[in-house]
Amino acid sequence: MNKAIAILTGGGPAPGMNTVVGSVAKVFLNNGYRVIGLHGGYSSLFQKNPRMADINFQFADDIFNRGGSAITMSRYKPTEEDFAKRFNLDFFKQNNIKLLVTIGGDDTASTANRVAKFLTDKKYPIANIHVPKTIDNDLPLPNGTPTFGYESARSEGSNIATVVYEDARTSANWFIVAAMGRSAGHLAFGIGASCHYPMIVIPEMFNKTEITCDKIVNLVISSIVKRKVMGEDYGAVVISEGVFHELSEEEVRKSGAHFSYDDHGHPELGKVSKAHIFCEMIENKITALRLNVKVRPVEIGYEVRCDVPIAYDRQYCSLLGFGVYDLFKAGHTACMVYVNNFGDVAPLFLRDLQDPKTGKIPPRLVDINSQFVQSVMRYVMHFITPDDYEPAKKYVAAPADYDFYKILHWDPIL
Known about the structure:
This protein is an alpha/beta fold. The protein is about 40% helix and about 15% strand. The strands form two sheets. The chain has a seven-stranded mixed beta sheet, with helices on both faces. It has a four-stranded parallel beta sheet with strand order 7-8-6-9, with helices on both faces.
């Protein structure tokens, strides 16, 4: 029986999924391996008859440049009982599988770690290599290397945000844009910085104070009033959905949002329009302040997940796919494949990345003190500072309440 590898995809889509699958398949097929795609993410490993498909060169070549994932995805998270009673070890034995390739984000990586440990305990000779994916860019890769899919999502998100900003200018309105990013604000900040949005709100900004609905709203009002002082009656704000993830239960209730929760215990933000919620809160404050401003909500999330990958991600994902074979050939397992800016491949061992207490891979946050972030705040964003107090009194009675640095409890950026 030919040696085989199995590939599964977990979590949500990201541009480049098919490029990784196609690249992994091509290099292993060229080296005499059978390649099996497992549908349904990790759920396939806990079924007697998993839904699977053989991947040949024609299939791999056909999906290479496409968005989405030809291997269907799932957020399925196996329980300890699943491992004890339902893990399909026979699937690996009967198909002579030597490597399990998992493609996904932080939750998928954490589960990959559990699978690797389980197989080691069972003394089954199979390798497990993970390919890091997420448009959130929040996996802890070295030297600021992006997770695949992020650059494509940022590019398409910026295209949408640019059109929204032009609409704001044309119609003399303000738009409230909510961008995906459960644990970190990379996507929201990347889009806002690329489009020169006058206000960007991400959870990392609240590193010295608790995130509250009032503070989020006041940051937006700060930008609106500052633009009025500048003589501009239009603008746009991008807010990371991750601020909801950091709100206390009391603050979530105050926002009026009602969440259900996924299998990983995360609020299912995708079921609720964050832009609409933000917009309503901001509109209520604008009405109370009697500011002559109209606000409109825009959501950026699902629109960018299955986009066709840009050239950067096609090249990057190809190298990641080839890197899987290089690491496997070198005898590595229980690791993530890492490719640096020079194309060098190295393993990142999950045991070194995980939290020693929880076993989960901690998210990489936006470095709020980096020169990039500080430059965007200093030169792109518009907000009230003490120099604006007097002219701002034309619009608000207490301008200090909307002072950007006071809201965040920061020292002013000089």
